[in-house]
Known about the structure:
By secondary structure, this protein is an alpha/beta fold. It folds into two domains: 5-206, 2-enoyl-CoA Hydratase, Chain A, domain 1 (Alpha-Beta Complex); 210-258, no CATH class. It has twelve helices and nine strands. It has helices at residues 30-45, 67-72, 81-90, 94-100, 117-124, 151-159, 161-170, 176-182, 194-206, 210-223, 228-243, 246-258; strands spanning 5-10, 13-18, 51-56, 106-110, 113-115, 127-131, 135-137, 174-175, 187-189. The strands form two sheets. Strands 1-2-3-4-6-9 form a six-stranded mixed β-sheet, with helices on both faces. A three-stranded mixed β-sheet has the order 5-7-8. Strand 2, helix 1 and strand 3 form a beta-alpha-beta unit. The longest helix is centred in the first third of the chain and has 16 residues, at 30-45.
Amino acid sequence: MSDFLLWDEDDGVVTLTMNRPDERNALGEESQFAAFEAAMGRINAERSIRVAILTGAGSAFCAGGNLKDMIGKSGMFGGDSMEIRRRYRAGIHRIPRAIERLEVPLIAAVNGPAMGAGCDLACMCDIRVASTTASFGEIFVKLGLIPGDAGCWFLQRVVGYARAAEMALTGDPVSAATALAWGLVSKVVEAETLLGEAKALARRMAVNSSDSVRMAKSLLRQARDTTMDNALELAAAYQGIAHRGEAHDAYLARLAKRK
């Protein structure tokens, strides 16, 4: 798939592993943005894939932007202010857009520090499971920057405005335990069991109808930014599809047989 984003598929569950451990899986290259787009597109296209997991190789989940490029004012951080704006829009912004288009559930298995864009990347996922060694930092202001990849949009939808403001305006990282208390993660486990826990959660989703899960995720995502009336209209349309689907017919047949 990609030398950066490794692909491992097992019984309808795909594990995507960011594979730059020496750079703490920092982001900033065209090939990385393209890898996320390609992976999300492939998952959407392959109906056999029901759930995806995102994790990092090595000791970190994702360290955020590449500091070497920031220091050298190169790569996506090169040029004047307008050029940097263009590079963000044509570069790292492709990751949240690609993930937002993903139809199946995406679980972040946060194996270590998730800093800056790494914290935002975790928040782009539907659910987060963290290792005890994980930490989360919306650290941009400590670098004299701002969350440049929609972090302020994602973070407050996960932890609420006040917690998001505390993280974004102080730049102070929070531990895995605090992340659990704040609802940033659903579960904290030992490092050696992290991927197993994420896969167990994925399998609980994967046993359900793929079409129903994809439509339910779509309803959840769209309900964040619409009225109740619009949500009801979309629910009625999706439910009409579901009522005439094979999965519902199979359930009714099993129910009739039991009775």
